[in-house]
Amino acid sequence: AQTVTQSQPEMSVQEAETVTLSCTYDTSESNYYLFWYKQPPSRQMILVIRQEAYKQQNATENRFSVNFQKAAKSFSLKISDSQLGDTAMYFCAFMSPTNAGKSTFGDGTTLTVKP
Amino acid sequence: GAGVSQSPRYKVTKRGQDVALRCDPISGHVSLYWYRQALGQGPEFLTYFNYEAQQDKSGLPNDRFSAERPEGSISTLTIQRTEQRDSAMYRCASSLVSSIGYNEQFFGPGTRLTVL
């Protein structure tokens, strides 16, 4: 079974600064997908960024980028130029195509962006 | 409305009552998932459907929980004889298809269930 661990329950960052959220996972599979989701106070689940395990290049989406280390089973999220609207809970998630698309989530990191 | 919708958004019930939670997926989406999210934790898989067929119900906690999707569109998650430990956010997600490669799961707003 896959597990996803987020070791930072809470983090804070000053507006315009950069912050990195950590995630590690455990799997025996070679092909899979990793995600970061954002859950703002509205409690909606919003996909932030996706990484395919077979791609060596780290995914980027505007101010959001990942550092994917497959051998270390590490998948961190870097938020550059933090904005007040980035305040949210962030979940790391794992999905295996062989497991019918079910996602396994970490317990989340609450990020607060301070003005 | 192009997104996944769920109803009710909030449900308060007394212990021992049955509840039915509804999910309306994005039109044309083949796969539908149910997750449960306790406060301060990540979503936990419950069950999923492809069309009307329930493909995996390994995440359902016990036999008080059941789900159906009779016409391959709207799904209902039913919890019988609710207990206080059932209190959580119940989320539905849908995707084009689950079994081939990657298809993004789109999440609904969730139903917050409180069992008194």
How would you describe this structure in keywords?
heterodimer, A: 115 residues, mainly beta, six-stranded mixed sheet, four-stranded antiparallel sheet, 12 strands, 0% helix, 51% strand, B: 116 residues, seven-stranded mixed sheet, 11 strands
List the helices and strands and how they pair.
The complex is a heterodimer of chains A (115) and B (116).
Chain A: E1 3-5, E2 10-14, E3 19-21, E4 24-26, E5 33-39, E6 46-52, E7 60-61, E8 64-69, E9 74-79, E10 88-95, E11 103-105, E12 109-114
Parallel strand pairs in A: 2-12
Antiparallel strand pairs in A: 1-4, 3-9, 5-6, 5-10, 7-8, 8-9, 10-11, 10-12
Chain B: E1 5-7, E2 10-13, E3 19-24, E4 31-37, E5 44-50, E6 53-56, E7 65-68, E8 75-79, E9 88-95, E10 106-107, E11 111-115
Parallel strand pairs in B: 2-11
Antiparallel strand pairs in B: 1-3, 3-8, 4-5, 4-9, 5-6, 7-8, 9-10, 9-11
The global form of chain B is globular
Let me know the largest β-sheet of chain B: 7 strands, mixed
What's the helix count of chain A?
Answer: 0
Structural Rg of chain A: 14 Å
Secondary structure: helix percent of chain B: under 10%
Q: Please tally the β strands of chain A and state the result.
A: 12
- Helix run count of chain B: 0
Q: Alpha-carbon distance between the termini of chain A?
A: 41 Å
Largest contact between chains: A-B, 22 and 28 residues
Structural class of chain B: mainly beta
Largest sheet of chain A: 6 strands, mixed
Order of helices and strands of chain A: EEEEEEEEEEEE
Computed over alpha carbons, the radius of gyration of chain B is 13 Å
Assembly state: heterodimer
Order of helices and strands of chain B: EEEEEEEEEEE
- Compute the separation of the termini of chain B in Å: 33 Å
Q: Strand-residue fraction of chain A?
A: over 45%
